[in-house]
Write a structure and sequence with these properties.
Layout: H1 3-18, H2 30-42, E1 49-55, E2 58-65, E3 74-79, E4 99-100, E5 103-105, H3 113-128, E6 137-142, H4 153-164, E7 168-178, E8 185-193, E9 195-204, E10 208-209, H5 218-230, H6 240-250, H7 257-262, H8 267-279, H9 281-287, E11 290-298, E12 304-305, E13 308-317, H10 323-334, E14 339-346, H11 358-370, E15 375-381, H12 387-391, E16 396-406, E17 419-421, H13 422-440
Parallel strand pairs: 3-6, 3-7, 7-16, 8-15
Antiparallel strand pairs: 1-2, 2-6, 4-5, 5-17, 7-8, 9-13, 9-14, 10-12, 11-13
Zinc ion binds next to loops.
């Protein structure tokens, strides 16, 4: 493997990929999808490449590298779309793909065009070295991840799952962290995610004139119901994934935090650590069902009592919370027949990818080899990713970004000045080569 050539290729390829503006909405991923298809063909990775168009202008690439038909494929995926970027705030324009100061700059360099380039370069270099893949590999690049995947991964899984039927799924969702859980590098592998319940509360009352207030004002009814919900947060609870996760992180911390975190499944330890865990928004989200009140719509004129008021709440449930139980709890808090609950969107329970698989082992081995001293831990993802479409159907889907982010980088994905260091990009290529070889060669 000629590292210099591979490095230059990875940098130039990512720089080009970033220049396709795939801001979603609207996405318009087709030109980027066609370019990716050409990359797969030109690099000699495979000739079996199909482009689907789940909705007008939305390209979805599916490529197969053949192997032994008796083995189920490894499915490697990334998404083509990115979130919006305001160019006035950036050091280098977000769709320029500028290469400067040892970084490739631009929207998508961390989330997650980098992963697509890592897969391309790793596959090509292995095939050029005449590595033979026994296990088939499916390479996919999907549109529409950033707005929920209904025209991307959800469409693919609903229409083509039997033909895909993967042994393991490797997608985005986590990666290496430095200086976040202590000084040491910790690699998270996403194995589960929280369930989405986007709900609308609608209160109705009696309209009237503001000069004659009465006790059936829809605004007041809704406000009081919301107050009862927000005043009683759901309990902190250590689910199996969080227990494993905190146990690994505990090993990197000083006493007494180390003891607390390693034994968090004990109710006493949880009580002792509760205040600190709840004060941090990330640990809070990993240990309880959360509710965020994000939209309020009520009234239209200062002297008119409204007859209808709405609120939208973003509820995220732990993988093992039963949605029906949560809804019962919510109605008990509301305790008012004038307030109805409507579901805007909900996801099925996540499912949890097992830790005792060759995939998890291959990731652990790659981390040990290329980031000596780093730990690997299973991660519960507070947000939603495309992995849920596989996990909810019982497939072992993992989120793993083969790169190391520092604390100051955490706001760059979806933020300003997104960029990846050339070193990080190469770390990804090396790890991907090892993982692909261990699982498929
Ligand atoms: Zn992403």
């Amino acid at each position: 493997m000629d590292e210099q050539t591979i490095r230059a290729d990875a940098v130039a390829t990512l720089s080009r990929y970033v220049q396709f503006d795939t801001t979603n909405p609207p996405g318009k991923e087709m030109p980027a999808a066609e370019w990716l298809r050409d990359q797969l063909l030109r690099r000699g990775i495979t000739n079996d490449v199909t482009i689907y168009e789940p909705a007008p202008g939305r390209g979805l690439v599916l490529a197969r590298i053949p192997g032994n038909a008796a083995l189920k494929p490894l499915f490697i995926n990334h998404h083509l779309d990115v979130v919006a970027a305001d160019p006035t705030q950036w050091t280098h324009p977000p769709f320029s793909g500028a290469v400067a100061d040892g970084f490739v700059w631009g929207r998508g360099t961390l989330d997650i065009k980098n992963l697509g380039v890592v897969f391309l370069v790793a596959l090509e270099s292995l095939l050029k070295e005449r590595v033979h893949f026994r296990r088939p590999i499916i390479f996919s690049a999907v549109p529409d991840e950033e707005t929920g995947g209904s025209q991307g991964m959800r469409w693919l899984v609903e229409n083509h799952l039997t033909a895909l039927d993967p042994e393991w799924v490797w997608d985005e969702g986590s990666g290496g962290f430095k200086g976040i859980f202590g000084p040491q590098v910790m690699f998270g592998v996403a194995v589960a995610e929280k369930q989405i319940q986007h709900l609308r509360l609608v209160a109705t009352g009696e309209p009237g004139h503001g000069s004659l207030p009465h006790n059936n004002n829809a605004n007041v009814t809704l406000l009081r119901a919301l107050q009862r919900i927000l005043d009683s947060p759901r309990p902190l609870r250590v689910n199996a994934t969080a227990a494993e996760m905190f146990q690994s992180i505990g090993g990197t911390q000083k006493f007494p935090t180390s003891i607390l975190l390693r034994n968090l499944s004990s109710p006493l330890m949880l009580r002792l650590a509760a205040q600190r865990l709840a004060a941090d928004k990330l640990t809070n989200a990993l240990l309880r069902d959360t509710i965020s009140l994000n939209v309020l719509k009520g009234g239209y004129k200062v002297n008119v009592i409204p007859e209808r008021t709405e609120a939208e709440i973003d509820c995220r449930l732990l993988p093992d919370t039963a949605a029906e139980e949560f809804h019962r709890w919510l109605r008990a808090r509301i305790a008012d027949k004038r307030v109805k609950v409507e579901t805007i969107e909900s996801s099925p329970p996540s499912g949890i990818a097992p830790l005792d698989t060759p995939f998890y082992k291959a990731v652990t081995n790659a981390v040990r080899r290329h980031a000596p001293g780093a730990e690997v831990f299973p991660l519960l993802v507070p947000g939603g990713t495309d992995g849920r479409y596989f996990r909810s159907r019982g497939y072992a889907a993992y989120g793993f970004g083969p790169m190391i982010l520092e604390r100051q980088d955490m706001s760059r994905p979806h933020g300003i000045d997104e960029r990846i260091s050339v070193e990080n990009l190469m770390l990804g290529v090396k790890m991907a080569r090892d993982i692909l070889t261990e699982l498929c060669a």
